[in-house]
Amino acid sequence: MKKFIYIALLLFLCSCQINKRPDLLFENKSEVMYKIGDHKSWSKKDFDDKSWSSKKMIPEGNGLFWARKTINILKQPDSLELTGIAIHAFGAYEVFWDGILIGKNGTPGKEAHSKKIGVTDNKFHIPNHLLKIGEHSLALRMSQLYEKKDKRGIYIYVLNYNYLITNKLINTIFINILAGAFLLTSLYYLLLFINDRKQLGTLLFSLTSFLFFLLIIAEYIKFYIPIHYSNFILRLKIIGTLTLFISFLVPYYFVVQFSLKNRKQFTIIYSIILTSIYLFYSKSYDYTAITLSQMMWFSSILIISYAIYTKRKAAIIVLIGLIFSFFIYQISIYDISLFVSFSIITLCMFYLLSVKLKEQRLAFEHSIAESTRLRYELLKKNIQPHFLMNTLTSLIDWVEESPEKGVEFIEALALEFDLLNQVEDQKLIPISQEIALCKSHLNIMRYRKEIDYQWETEGDIENELLKIPPAIIHTLLENGITHCKPIENNSMKFKLIIKNDLKKLQYTFLTYAKVRNTEKERKGGTGFKYIKARLSESYGNKWQFTSEAENHGWKNIIIIEK
Amino acid sequence: MRILIIEDENRIAKRIERMTKDFFLNILKNITCINSLNEGIEYIQNNELDLVLLDLNLNGENGFEILKKSVSESFHTIIISANKQEALTAFEYGVLDFVPKPFNKNRLEQAFNRIVKKEEVTTENLQFLAIKKRSGIQLININNVLYIKGAGVYTEIYLDNGKKELHDKSLEKLSQLLPKTFQRIHKSYLVKINEIKEIIVQTGSKYSIELKNKEILPVGRTKYKLLKEKLI
Hints:
The complex is a heterodimer. Chain A is of the alpha+beta class.
């Protein structure tokens, strides 16, 4: 529920229009006319520019050209208010209103010798006495030394001057708050990733947030930092590239977070699609950005739908968020919709990350509880009444019959307890220690059952690097003793074979005896559960365990993949 | 005495055997040791016995099935086990005693004395009587039992639903197991005291009782006094 409140709040903030746009003061019907050359009279109000071209033509080098436009003022502005004209144009120019110079943007004709002065979007004040109702002429004396290929036209608005100056700044305030939030998020998750390098999700999220931050800054920087027209295209290219990366990262993030298969194929195919779009539409910057973000949205929807199909947690909420973001995108203008819908997508990512973190925390807590349980189970092996009381009864009997044997028995028991204490808090122990544990257990059982137990090993048992979770073979040995009868000469043999190669480590444990209940399958008793839980604790799912009756008795195989 | 020991620990089995021999001496007819569940059940089915000494945990298998089987037979069962927490269940099903491991000679002889001296079991834990049926062992809650009638080596158990069941244990043996709410009123009758409505005294010092369900049972002359004391 909280998430929806956040989303609603964000939308509310974005939809606030604090200063209302005042009425347009002019009729914007006439075309802008161009002519190469330079003449004083071209600035005059009643100059006839009908023979001029409506297509923009740019002379070589520092060469001058003129642009003229007729502006029809429909309503006399309030005499106490300032009125301004906003001009978006590439080039350096002087502005003539009815033949009177009212402003200057750079140094037309002298650009090669001066620094890059002037901005792409400029505003000029028009004196109130020049704003009578009726037709007026706007003439620009221009030169365009840079970006000659860009034939973009000239865009003109006549509006309240204060509004022209402050309007975009107010939007910028909110958008910069958003940018700050993205920056902090990015840093926070970067630090989280540095502390836990395994979490690819946090890194992707941090990276996406950072790119968002950059995208917002790049998009809105034009409102508060003057950009010379020669740098304007660079900014658009930066925006395009940022959008390209974001469009890749967002769906990729979903693929990673939902742990979908075929991650590699997705990466290759999707990057090829994105790059081709990017290259194909490289000339029209806004269109590239829109197409890329649509691709991002579309592929994210596909991935999440698949995640819902495969019943991944939280996928439905993310899908709702994405569809919602698409609505916002459809109903509002580009500059706002881009950020609102991106913000919603980020929120979805945020939510997914928090769900993942919770899952990981639970898994971690579970693993701790599981380890404690296994440790307890290991300790219990030798104090559970069946083992302890039977051992003590036998011990009493030995002491009564032969005190010397009784002492030996006590020593064997002491050794077993000692060995168990040594391994009690370990998750993995050297195989030699495990073998010692088994041998000491057999020693005790010899006194109790009076059966000739034999032990054999094959393989590299002295290798300290060969490890095994504690009491696993011990448990198999206990099972063997319990479920098998000795052969004719009252003996029972156990054999441990260790095979170690580059790919896997294999322990084969054989019991040579008669199986008591051949018809009854021995399925996962508590012993097997202990073994499986121990293997999972140390090796995740990279292990196999099989146990079955054989001609000679019983065969257990544990394989640990490397 | 014909005794069977079911115990999977060789050393312990030998210990029980030695102590049993020492106790019963010349009244011991034969003694057998078996170390597995299935063999034990088979032996019980095919041999006449007077006492079974049973370990409940045999080669990792729960001896509960053999316990039910064992208590339904004519002989007494004594459990010798490491799991003290199973003692209550064992008594509920009608074992004569539960000897926890590790045990010494005195404790085992204490259990044997219950058979020889016909001492009553002090615990009041018996809950069920295990009855052999064709379909297997059926457990009867002793709350449903009205009275028990001796019929030679068997007994007939009369229930509150009007049915009658046969039990393989003699009246002697059952009276050793049943709680004090059951009173011997005659050499052939064992009655639950709170089922008695009244004592009827007839001419010629003949006594009988009427049960709440209007059945009339005879009371032995020697038992009359004891019964009267208990009822008052």
